[in-house]
Specification:
This protein has two domains: about 110 residues, 2-Layer Sandwich (Enolase-like, domain 1); about 230 residues, TIM Barrel (Alpha-Beta Barrel), CATH 3.20.20.120. The radius of gyration is 20 Å and the shape is globular. With about 375 residues, it is α/β, with parallel strands linked by helices. α2 packs antiparallel against α3 and α7 packs parallel to α8. About 50% of the residues are buried. The protein has 13 helices and 13 strands.
Length: about 375
């Protein structure tokens, strides 16, 4: 069955992709959030010409072929656009076979343990600790991630001492039995990252994400080699060769591809397989409640080397509200993988109606 049309429904932050096959069956996917309007243009202008008329079932091969054919334009926007097509085709395949994407991957829809992921640095340590404690009581989280350092901070904190203050307050609030992760968002040089890691160990932190600028794999490896805490990274990367190098040199202990950033589920699965071959954990990045969270639930419920927890934001972003007819929900620290065919969710028709519409189509009969 061939691809007949590719449609996008776009805002500045989000772009939902709908792929229709020649028999009228439709699948829904999503371009990576943030500046999604730019990636939607790339989808129609550079991706659609390769995809229209192609076989709907050859998802991995099609994604790889598009990246190869558009080799003069490597990088984020192309991968984001390909990811929108790829995720829609997985939904289409699941609907055609009457299976969830998770089942297509050899897994089963189940409840996935999640960690509550904070996205904020503009919050006092006391306020952060209090909201973690409250969420622990109301939603049952058994793990949390908090932000330390400054985003690409060059060894600077939001203000002097904040990183240790927020870690200390969070640990006191959630107790010793709760797993505590931190994310430095490329905040440190190696020496400062190692010093910070020693501090984190005192508070039982078990996951140190992106301690150094993500492009500096040699720096990150120095930190991973020096610390007993698991060092994580990979969310920003889109080049599979970079992932291959990252894994081969053991720059990190935990690999974190983002399904939407890296170019779709097919390419994220390839990263997971690389990590599995090296005996490494793959914990995909999933920092918002767009369709990305749904994609990631299906992936982690199926891959053998997923971590103990999946990332799940504790922020309530206005731009994701109303996207699904039945929103995801945390109960006892877990989120259910949607059980219907494909992704198992319905994109809200009212959301689609308000978005900017565009279609690319072929003469496939």
């Amino acid at each position: 069955m061939k691809i007949k049309s590719i449609e996008t429904f776009t805002t500045r932050q989000l772009s939902v992709v709908r792929v229709t096959s020649q028999d009228g069956l439709q699948g829904y996917g999503q371009i990576a959030p943030y500046h999604a309007n730019i990636s939607a243009l790339v989808l129609h202008q550079q991706v659609a010409p390769h995809a229209l008329g192609a076989d709907c079932s050859e998802i991995e091969a099609l994604s790889a072929a598009i990246i190869r054919e558009e080799h003069k334009f490597p990088g984020s926007h192309l991968c984001r656009a390909v990811g929108g097509l790829d995720t829609a085709l997985w939904d289409l395949k699941g609907k055609r076979e009457g299976k969830s994407v998770c089942e297509l991957l050899g897994g089963r829809p189940r409840k996935v343990e999640v960690y509550g992921s904070s996205m904020r640095r503009d919050i006092s340590p006391g306020e952060e600790a209090e909201r973690l404690r409250r969420l622990q009581e109301t939603e049952g989280f058994r793990a949390f991630k908090i932000r330390i350092a400054s985003n690409f901070g060059h060894d600077k904190d939001v203000y002097p001492g904040r990183s240790e203050q927020v870690v200390r307050a969070a640990r006191a609030a959630v107790g010793d039995d709760t797993s505590l992760f931190v994310d430095a968002n490329s905040g440190f040089t190696p020496g400062k990252a190692i010093e910070t890691g020693d501090m984190l160990a005192q508070y039982g932190v078990c996951h140190f994400e992106e301690p150094c600028p993500y492009t500096e794999l040699e720096w990150t490896k120095q930190v991973a080699d020096a610390l007993d805490i698991a060092v994580a990274g990979g969310e920003q990367d889109t080049d599979l060769t970079q992932f291959r190098r990252m894994i081969a040199m053991r720059a990190v202990d935990v690999v974190q591809p983002d399904i939407c950033y890296v170019g779709g589920l097919s390419r994220a699965l390839e990263v997971a397989r690389m990590a599995e071959s090296a005996g490494m954990i793959c914990m995909p990045h999933a920092a918002n409640l767009s369709m990305l969270a749904v994609f990631t639930l299906h992936m982690v419920a199926a891959i053998p080397n997923a971590g103990d927890y999946m990332e799940y934001t504790i922020e309530q972003d206005d731009w994701t509200k109303g996207l699904f007819t039945e929103p995801l929900a945390v109960s006892d620290g877990r989120v259910q993988v949607p059980e219907g065919p494909g992704w198992g969710i319905t994109v809200n028709p009212q959301w689609l109606e308000k978005a900017e519409y565009r279609i690319s189509s072929s003469g496939v009969l």
